[in-house]
Amino acid sequence: MARISFTGATRFADAESARLAAVGAGTPVHVHVIPNRNIVWVLTGPDAPASLSANDVTLSRMQLYNGALVTGGQPLLVAFEAYAADRIANGTPVQRIYWRDCNEFTRKTTFINQLRVAIQGAKTNPVSLKEMDDVFINGSGYSPATT
């Protein structure tokens, strides 16, 4: 299976039916609600996150950016990319090294929290914290196509 998107008035009921079908088939499943886009995603099989605790996850750069895309769509991905580019161009030496050369990202890293705060915008702190946790959870379920 994969990532199935549900929209419209019946999105929650449809997503729950898909979740139950996946559980019945014995496949890993994760439901992700994206309130600002009125979408519910049901991630199953290999697309389901490896862990439901963001602190247990280490992401590659590709997984980090894919997690941002899955969690907040293109606006969140663009914010991640813009922040990283700015830190590479204008950050402290340690920030430049981290955002230019790091290939393993963990939720507890100071630089990830700096990213979260920088792109928080009008979101409340709890909403921003949950969004970044979701980036790591959703990113952990991504692996690039091999064919």
What does this structure look like?
The chain has 147 residues and is of the alpha+beta class. The chain is built from 5 helices and 5 strands. It has helices at 11-25, 61-90, 93-101, 110-118, 125-140; strands at 3-6, 29-34, 39-44, 58-59, 105-106. The chain has a 3-stranded antiparallel beta sheet, with helices on one face. Strands 4-5 form a two-stranded antiparallel sheet. The longest helix is centred in the middle third of the chain and has 30 residues, at 61-90. The radius of gyration is 16 Å and the shape is elongated. The two termini are 16 Å apart.
The gist of it:
By secondary structure, the protein is of the alpha+beta class. It is 54% helix and 14% strand.
